[in-house]
Amino acid sequence: MAALTLETAGESHGPALTTLVRGMPAGLEIDLDLINGELKRRQGGYGRGGRQRIESDAVTFLAGVRRGRTTGAPVVMQIPNRDSRLDDLERTPPVYRPRPGHADLAGSVKWLTTDCRETLERASARETAARSAGGALARCLLREFGIEVFGFVRGMLDVQTGVAVDEANLPSLRAARDASEVYCPDPDASRAMIDRIRQAKVDKDTAGGWAEVHVFGCPIGLGSCVHFEEKLDGRLAGAVMSIQAFKAVEIGLGRACGARPGSQVHDPIAFDPAERSRPSLGFTRVTNHAGGLEGGMTNGMPVVVTGTMKPISTLLRGLPSVDLNSKQPEHSAYERSDVCALSAASVVMENVVAFEIARVFRTKFGGDSMPEVRAGYEAYLDLARRLPLEKPGEAPPMEAEQTER
Prior knowledge:
The chain is an alpha+beta fold. Helix content is 30%, strand content 18%. The relative contact order is 0.17.
């Protein structure tokens, strides 16, 4: 078993963010443009704040990569913080008025202080740059096996796009998403979302919404139905919920399953011999309400995950709060922030989902080097296509041999 793990270190206004990824096989070609491109997308989107004009994120590899390929050692990536000001008391003064919806109050009590400053720095979504880099690295691996990950903004407030996502229209959807200021592949919905964000800024308010990720090309059987902590839907839900400001995660139909009878929820199974060469092994579905996951495992259909992001906690107009020293009523403190970070959050979500897919992929196919991983992957698909490995009712070869004796 090859365990793929990711760790991050660094604070939002410290000198740098660091990502440590263990378990990458040797010989994987690194697409630096992909990684830095994801970091750039994470900084974009209509409604972002002033910091995005200060930072220009790009990774530097400190270990685990030689001449553009992984060595098998842990991969260490670092992203500098240009806006490093943690020890500058003039620029980062104490914060005694916690912001509702943020980690300020809970963290201050946890660490037994009335100054929210260190909590708000630790809890900052700046940390997601490090996780996005790790997820983009994982996508370099997934692409070697034809697995593609696509994320976008589905909607916000009263605006939603009904755009259908499938493998055939993926290139055009990606181009349309990248042309949108809010990372939505529907031009009409994009314009409406921009209007909502603009109005929120006028109102000194904030906006959240829904991000959606689709994963194409996963072979059947990634994940587990045996160990609860290895169920892929649980891992995906945990990864998405750990993104700052996310409050809900749905797989496939998600909560809509509760409003339908079973006959309108479960996806009938068919078999098409013409599709045997695909990772789905020829098994097809006319619907994908399950979101590509059954029993904690991939079932050959695209994996579909939707996340709900709440509006940013820092409002220009503030909200009722208290001074932690005097306990008297005050308005919450204002820290430099975004009006809407949903576009950026969709990039983070896309990459944390990619990392979890890569994690279960490595668990199943193991190997210290890319040739070993590829051999394991191809051998598994070959065996799966040959099922049944013995004729129904016929004893397996070992049992037949013992019977003859």
